[in-house]
Design a protein that fits this description.
Layout (H helix, E strand, L loop, with lengths): L2 H25 L4 H19 L8 H11 L14 H64 L1 H34 L6 E3 L1 H10 L7 E6 L6 E3 L1 H25 L7 E8 L4 E8 L6 H4 L19 H11 L3 E7 L2 E9 L14
Parallel strand pairs: 2-4
Antiparallel strand pairs: 1-3, 4-5, 5-7, 6-7
Helix pairs in contact: 1-2, 1-3, 1-4, 2-3, 4-5, 6-7, 7-9
Bound molecules: adenosine-5'-diphosphate and magnesium ion.
The site of magnesium ion has 4 residues, from α7.
C-alpha cells in the first residue's frame, strides 16, 4: 500500500478511535457498547493501513491508538525523530489523549458526587425511621409513669425493648454505611480464585445449606483486591444462603437448600464468577433498584440493604460487571472481571 493511502486510512481511523471513548466518558456508560464497536472497527482499519508498513513512521500512532482503544489512558506518542507533519500529528494525538483522560476523570467525579447526594438523602431517611418508635416508646413510658405506676411496670419491658431494637438497627446501619463510605480504592494483587471461593463457602459450613465450589483447575490468576473481592463474595453468598434456606423451610418438597459458587474463564481477558442458589428468586419490589443502597426486603430481620450496593461498587471499581438472573427456582449473580485487574488511571476514589 502506498504511504499516502496508509496515512489517510490511519487518520480516518485514529480520530474516531480516540473520540469514541471520549464521547462515552462525557455522555455516559450507555455509549460504551457502540464505542467498543467503533473502536474495534477503527483498530481493524489501523491494522489494515499498516499491515505492510510496520516500520513506517505511522507505526507508533497505530500502536498508541490500539492502546487507547484497549482502555489505556495517558498514552503519548513520541515524535522527536519524525517529520514536521509527523510532529504535528503527534502533538494533536497527545492533546486528544490528554483531553480524553481529563474528560473521563471529570465525568467519574460528577457521577460520584451525584451518587453521594442520593446516598446522603437515603441515609437521612433511614436514620429517621427508627427515631419515631424510639420517641413514642419513651413518651408512652413517661405518660404511664405519671398516671399509673402499675401500667408503667407493665409497659416497661416492652417499650424498652423497642428502644433497644431500634438502637441496634441504627448501629447496624451505621456500621454498614461506614464500610460503604470508607471503601478505599482497590489495591490489586494476584488472587487465587479457587481459594477465594472456597474461603467464602467455608464461612457457611455450619449454616445447614450445602455450599459447593466448582472451579476448574488451571484457572488464570486474577489481578484484584483480594479483601474487597472476598467482601463481594461474602455479601452474595450470605444473600444466597439466606434465600435458599428460607425457601427450603417454606417448601420442603423442593429439596434441600443449596448454593453453588463457580469460576470459569470468561472472554479472552475476563474471569466469570457466579453465585447461584435454590431460593425463591428476588422479590419484584426490589429487582429494578437492586444495587441501590438501602434497598431491602429484610428490614425487620437485620437487613441493611447495603450488601449488594457494596458488592456492585467494588465490582465496578474493578472495571468488572455484575448481572443477575432470577426466577421462582433460584437466582444467579454473575461477575465478569478483567484478568488484568483495575487500571489505576481512572479518577480519584476518595471522593466516593
Ligand atoms: N440471592 C437472592 N435471592 C433472593 N433475593 C435476594 C438475593 N440477593 C438479594 N436479594 C434481595 O435483595 C435485597 C437486597 O440485598 P442486600 O443489598 O444484600 O441487602 P440486605 O441483605 O441487607 O437486605 C434483599 O433484601 C433481598 O430481598
Ligand atoms: Mg445482604
Amino acid at each position: 500500500m502506498k504511504a499516502s493511502a496508509r496515512a489517510l486510512a490511519l487518520a480516518a481511523a485514529l480520530v474516531p478511535s480516540v473520540l469514541a471513548p471520549l464521547l462515552a466518558a462525557v455522555e455516559g456508560p450507555e455509549y460504551l457498547g457502540p464505542v467498543a464497536g467503533i473502536s474495534v472497527v477503527c483498530m481493524a482499519a489501523v491494522a489494515w493501513a499498516l499491515r505492510t508498513g510496520r516500520s513506517s513512521p505511522l507505526a507508533p500512532f497505530a500502536e498508541a491508538a490500539e492502546r487507547v482503544a484497549r482502555g489505556e489512558r495517558g498514552v503519548q506518542v513520541d515524535a522527536e525523530a519524525a517529520t514536521p507533519e509527523g510532529q504535528r500529528l503527534a502533538a494533536a494525538f497527545n492533546r486528544m489523549t490528554e483531553a480524553l483522560a481529563e474528560a473521563e476523570k471529570r465525568s467519574r467525579r460528577a457521577e460520584r458526587l451525584a451518587a453521594w447526594r442520593d446516598i446522603a438523602r437515603q441515609m437521612a431517611h433511614e436514620i429517621k425511621n427508627p427515631l419515631t418508635p424510639i420517641r413514642l416508646a419513651v413518651e408512652n413510658l413517661r405518660k404511664a409513669r405519671s398516671r399509673d405506676p402499675a401500667l408503667f411496670e407493665e409497659l416497661f419491658d416492652e417499650e424498652t425493648s423497642i428502644v433497644l431494637e431500634e438502637v441496634e438497627r441504627l448501629r447496624r446501619l451505621l456500621d454498614a454505611f461506614s464500610t460503604f463510605a470508607r471503601m478505599p480504592r482497590p489495591k490489586p494483587g494476584p488472587v487465587d480464585v479457587r481459594e477465594l471461593l472456597q474461603h467464602a463457602a467455608d464461612l457457611h459450613r455450619t449454616s445447614g445449606c450445602a455450599v459447593r465450589v466448582e472451579a476448574a483447575e488451571g484457572l488464570p490468576v486474577l489481578r484484584a483486591d483480594r479483601d474487597q473481592l472476598a467482601q463481594v463474595l461474602l455479601n452474595l453468598v450470605a444473600n444466597a444462603v439466606l434465600a435458599a434456606t428460607e425457601r427450603a423451610a417454606q417448601d420442603p418438597t423442593r429439596g434441600a437448600a443449596w448454593v453453588r459458587l463457580a469460576a470459569v474463564h470468561g472472554g479472552a481477558r475476563t474471569l466469570r464468577i457466579s453465585v447461584a442458589d435454590s431460593g425463591a428468586g428476588i422479590d419484584a419490589s426490589v429487582l429494578s433498584r437492586l444495587y441501590e443502597p438501602y434497598v431491602t426486603t429484610r428490614q425487620g430481620s437485620g437487613g441493611t440493604g447495603l450488601g449488594l450496593a457494596i458488592a456492585y461498587r467494588i465490582v465496578t471499581e474493578h472495571q468488572g460487571t455484575m448481572g443477575v438472573d432470577t426466577g421462582p427456582d433460584g437466582t444467579t449473580f454473575t461477575l465478569e472481571l478483567p484478568l488484568a485487574g483495575p487500571t489505576t488511571t481512572l479518577g480519584d476514589s476518595t471522593l466516593g
